[in-house]
Amino acid sequence: MIEHLIPILAGTFGAAVPLIFAGLGELVTERTGVINLGVEGMMLIGAIAGFAAAAETGSGAAVGIPAGALAGAGIALVFGFFALSLAANQAACGLALTIFGIGLSAFIGQHYISYSLPGLKPIIIPLLSDIPVLGPIVFKQDAVVYLSLLAFAAIAWTLAKTRLGLLLKAIGESPEAAHAIGYPVISIRFGAVAFGGAMAGIAGAYLSTVYTPLWVQNMSAGRGWIAVALVVFASWKPARLMLGAYLFGAVTILQFHAQGLGIIVPVQFLASLPYVATIIVLVIISRDRRVLQNNLPASLGKPFLP
């Protein structure tokens, strides 16, 4: 049993990385009162930008992931222009961004359909990787997996322990009050939106340059929507989001190992498991309105013009 469990748990870390980056970015964005439903589109833009940069330079993920972050941040600023500067409907702008990202990534990606990348070798940490069971699961991962843990720790600490975190929450609760005491609400929201876009771009670039190092059209496969759902699942708390990301990562990996474990079920059903789990979780959470109301940023989705 252990020989089957170890690869499933080890694979869960890699499968959760795109959800962690995209989810944490969207969480920070929503903490300021902005809801960006374009995470799927930003992930795809980051994926094709990262893959193109890696393929053209021959430098792999070392160049691809920063390129994905820049592309994600850039396209997020376009969303910010319409949703923040022009006070357009945030949900509509986000959906338009997703549609645009799907189309643009498919168009650019036509040139890279036959390309493949070397991927990223795991970092084997001496001594710790030799620990029975735990070592192969945790201490034989690629660099981006460890980076996702650092990103979680930094964001959780910033939101909970710093003045910046308190300011982001204050803007999300009452942008009018924050503006009245002199804070540049729109500029701070632009920063949060760009950060969320960069994180989504990293998530997409990880998919195309590390997790599946070749270009496949629409390769995010709905992970952007799951990331948005994870923010609600987590009640806008980073620790719960990490737990949810690993839960959905485990469900994703399980579908690949199910037949090896002797579980005879249709492949289509296994492929749908992450999305079915998303719906079930959201239904369960929506039943407890008190939890949502206590943690939901009061100005979420509401336009603000100073």
Automatic annotation (TrEMBL):
InterPro entries according to UniProt: ABC_transp_permease
Gene Ontology molecular-function annotations: transmembrane transporter activity
A single GO cellular-component term on record: plasma membrane
Membrane topology of the entry: Multi-pass membrane protein
Signal peptide: none
One Pfam short name: BPD_transp_2
Location, primary (coarse class): membrane
Top-level taxonomic group: Bacteria
Membrane-crossing residue ranges in chain numbering: 6-25, 37-55, 61-84, 91-113, 143-160, 181-208, 214-234, 241-258, 264-285
Subcellular location: Cell membrane
Keywords, ordered alphabetically: Cell membrane, Membrane, Sugar transport, Transmembrane, Transmembrane helix, Transport
Protein name: Simple sugar transport system permease protein
